[in-house]
Specification:
Length: 522
Amino acid sequence: MGKVFQKITGSKITLIFLPVIFFIIYSFKLNLVPVHLNQDELEFSLNAYSISKTLVDRNGIYLPFYFWHLDNFWATPIVTYFAALFLKFLPLSEGNIRIPSVVIGIASVVLVMIITHLIFKKRYLVIFSGFLFATSPALFINSRLLLDNIYPIFFTLLWILFLKLFLDKKNIFLAFLSGLALGIGFHSYHAAKILMPLYFIFTAIFFFKKFRKKILAFGLAFLIPVLIFIPWLKIHPDTLINQIGYISSIDKTISTNKGLYSFLTVEKAKSFIISYFSYFDPKILFISGDKTLIHSTEKFGVFLFPIAILILIGVIYAIYEKENKFSRLFIFGLLVYPVPPSLINDPERTSRSLGVIVFATFLSMYATKYLSDSKDMILRTILIFIYVFIPLLFIIFLKDYYFDYPKRSYQVFNNNIGGASESVLRSTKIREVSTIYLDKNIYFVTRYFDFYKIKNGEISIPQKVRVFDPNKESFVNFPEKSIVLVRSNYFSDRSDKYGEFEKIEVIKEPDGKETFHIFYRD
């Protein structure tokens, strides 16, 4: 059976074109789906744009280690600096700011294929690993968002790659690079501050028993990126402390007064256990996925459901195969993936720990090899069924994602504030406008307006921009030549006139719902 698969996937051209094909699929209609920018994408992009042009963030800090995010917490830096590299050469737009995430997603596909080659030395498994990994709905969705939760995948794969190379060649520099990948990954996402140390401890204990001298290189490399964080913490001690406040908004068992002591209670232990085991619910993994429409279509799981068979077989293989100790690493990764979101009692948020895709893919490869080498016709038939059915399901997923998902998800992406902002900016070119009034109850309206000013080449506009609260201040008395952007639900009727103001545009969503109105007084 393995020889059959080898013939089907034997061409070296396939190895090259698989990532290229998926790059095209992953980057298709980036400016249109997801349908709008969410607030995190917005903030990451504005800081990245500022860094690309001035090396200073939006708060005036020169090359900050972390970025103050949405006036709420310090965000990890790698996503912003990586996006800044692209915005150095590309104009600011919805599609362009998401390209870095696509690149990270596809680079991760390539790393999976390389690691598979090192482990199995079978070309057909290399192709299948890249294919299974790339067709994960969770990877696809999160690789099309300018968010930092995708980055731990890349650094996790670098850790595995260099660890495998070290075990094969016993080169101390490879041990150093493996530890360095974990250390840098520590700053890739907040959940990585838990996962990367766990990976480090497991690796040190399980793989470095015979390499006592080389474990020093591995440990030093891990500590370097962590230790250089200390000078920043001395200046900005709230970088970690304010995370407690952010977490407490998610998990009510966490007290901002008690800080870390909040995690050492019986109530917290119970909530952790319940949340932890919920992450192995087949419904989450194979049917519905993450509970928010930002990270899931709610029609498909983290994985396409036929992979459940491969993961189960792969786990059993890894447990009982005594000679292949490297496979135990993937069991460990699968077991610890729910730890970060479970610590904050945030069930069904697989987007907070996407490394599960990595470990499940490699376990699936062990299963694929076992089934393809089997002489049992039933087992080989099951394998064929899985690899025929997965592309069909992925096509169905893509159809839903590109056509129906925008209609379901626009609300979690804060409605069409971008379209409303661009409409206001267009109006200033065809009308005499002295002042622009923005409804302060529109979510992060000034940040959205700043983004679309830059996108449309209107970084500095002659009109005054003022934020007002329509619940406290009626705009009926605003002066002539004023343009007003307000939420549609501010009005109880659909009148085209409001005092001397005339409604000049209605902003609608993909399903036709009106969300914003624009008024102008001549």
